[in-house]
Write a structure and sequence with these properties.
Blueprint (H helix, E strand, L loop, with lengths): L7 H11 L13 H11 L11 H20 L3 E5 L6 H4 L6 E6 L1 H11 L6 E5 L7 H8 L7 E5 L8 H13 L6 E8 L5 H9 L12 H8 L3 E9 L5 E8 L9
Parallel strand pairs: 1-2, 1-4, 2-3, 4-5
Antiparallel strand pairs: 5-7, 6-7
Helix pairs in contact: 1-2, 7-9
């Protein structure tokens, strides 16, 4: 991230997601119009109009499904890690659920300005996920580690090293009461994309990890999560999207 500037990749993801609005679910108390207004406020983003949103549609549907299932199960806290301009706190607004969004301060400041009064739908927890203490930040934000949570890590782990991503998952596990869950996505066996990677490096949002097909489950298990489900979409040369969920089944103190 460049100091003082909101994330370009977060804005790019939101612009893609805006194109999927008609395909997405909501709930009776949801406010999808607020999410749509947030995305409109971002305007056009370079490269989105030519992008085929197949992978984005699959991962969006996955995280939407996990959100709705958590709300239906009565999970009282949903934590979006690396939230960017995610609009789910509006789309799935529910009086029984408290939302927490963790992200870089400059991105959160821009998002709150764009949302205006609707920013009260979530508790914003400013943090640098690569260097700051996630447990302490969540505690300061009012997250209750004694109550179940759903932790959502969408589009996040490519921007952390595998070691840092595993450490983050372990930190979340230590904040997770029994029956809590985690949902994450990974692009495995990804071929290098020199132009895109060079552009990301220039804006300070460089990809730091490339994953094998075995890495996602290994990372969750090393961090103390029980792997519940794993979905994969295989493409040419084995590249594909992995959508994975984990569950907290043991005392959080066993996490390392």
């Amino acid at each position: 991230m460049r100091p003082g500037r909101p994330s370009f990749t977060a804005r790019w993801v939101a612009a893609q997601r805006a194109r999927l609005a008609d395909q997405r679910p909501t709930i009776p108390t949801g406010r999808p119009e607020l999410e749509a207004a947030l995305y409109r406020s971002l305007g056009a983003v370079l490269g989105v109009s030519a992008f085929r949103p197949t992978s984005m549609a699959a991962r969006t549907a996955f995280f939407d499904r996990e959100t709705v299932c958590a709300i239906e199960r009565g999970v009282p806290q949903i934590v979006i890690v690396g939230a960017g301009y995610d609009g789910r706190a509006a789309r799935f607004a529910c009086p029984a659920v408290r939302w927490f969004e963790l992200d870089y301060p400059s991105t959160q400041e821009d998002k709150r300005r764009r949302l205006g009064p609707a920013s009260d739908l979530a508790t914003f927890v400013p943090i640098d996920l690569a260097t700051d203490d996630v447990e302490a930040a969540l505690d300061r934000g009012g997250h209750d580690a004694r109550r179940p949570s759903l932790f959502m890590c969408e589009g996040l782990f490519a921007y952390l090293s595998i070691a840092d991503g595993t450490a983050l998952l372990a930190s979340l596990r230590r904040c997770a009461a029994p029956t809590s869950g985690v949902a994450a996505n990974f692009l495995v066996n990804a071929r290098p994309k020199r132009v895109a990677d060079a552009g990301l490096a220039v804006i300070g949002e460089r990809r730091r990890a490339r994953f094998t097909a075995e890495d996602p489950a290994r990372m969750l298990e090393q961090a103390g999560w029980h792997v519940d489900s794993r979905e994969a979409t295989d493409r040419r040369r084995g590249e594909g999207l992995v959508l994975i969920t984990g569950r907290a089944t043991h005392d959080r103190r066993t996490s390392s």
